[in-house]
Amino acid sequence: MSRNARINTLLLLLVAALAVIPLVFGLGDHKEEPFAGADGEAETAITELHPDYEPWFSPLYEPPSGEIESALFALQAALGAGVLAYYFGLRRGRRQGEARTRELIAADAGAGAAGTGADADSAGAEGTGAGARTGTAGTGADADSAGAEDTGAGAGTGAAGPGAGVRTGPGDGRD
């Protein structure tokens, strides 16, 4: 078992123990509502200390029962967890995409200036030259170093998007 798998297993066991220990040892048996939230505990403490206390404002929505209140709280927690999971998954996917792009760029650079790399355009119509094409996240942005009726060498970097590119070789500017 790898180190990460052992850590994850240990964390899961710890969370399970935190959920089961209060039930096994009956830590809330002496209370009327053993698993009431902190809001209820605070309200009880305030009314004991200051019986004439008036709240500053009242809730916008008062659920008709404790079960509905619990269901709304669970829904809120699930939505929050979903947003966090989406964010962290998006970040991980971007990191993996950037790593793949760097690997492809390194592979293209290692192929040499002869234009034999997977993303290199080395010759255009009626012209010869050496060039390299690099894009973001494998989108295939083009840069032609030698195109119609010209000869030259150069490298271009395109923006993300198919067909977006720059021409760096000398010539009349036609592709």
How helix-rich are the residues, as a percent range? 40-55%
> Could you spell the SSE succession in H and E letters?
HHHEEEE
Count of helical regions: 3
Strand-residue fraction?
5-15%
Report, as a whole number of angstroms, the end-to-end distance: 57 Å
Most strands sheet: 2 strands, parallel
How much is the radius of gyration in Å?
32 Å
Strand order of the largest sheet: 1-3
Please identify the structural class as seen in this structure: mainly alpha
Tertiary shape? elongated
Mean of residue pLDDT values: 73
* pLDDT < 50 runs, ≥5 residues: 113-169, 171-175
Q: Tell how many strands the DSSP assignment holds.
A: 4
Q: What is the strand and helix layout of this fold?
A:
Layout lengths: L2 H22 L13 H12 L16 H45 L22 E2 L7 E3 L11 E2 L7 E3 L8
Parallel strand pairs: 1-3, 2-4
General description of the model:
There is one protein chain. This protein has helices at 3-24, 38-49, 66-110, and strands at 133-134, 142-144, 156-157, 165-167. By secondary structure, it is mainly alpha-helical. The protein has a two-stranded parallel sheet with strand order 1-3.
In short:
By secondary structure, this protein is mostly helical. The chain has helices at 3-24, 38-49, 66-110, and strands at residues 133-134, 142-144, 156-157, 165-167.
Primary descriptors:
single chain; about 180 residues; mainly alpha; two-stranded parallel sheet; two-stranded parallel ribbon; 4 strands; elongated
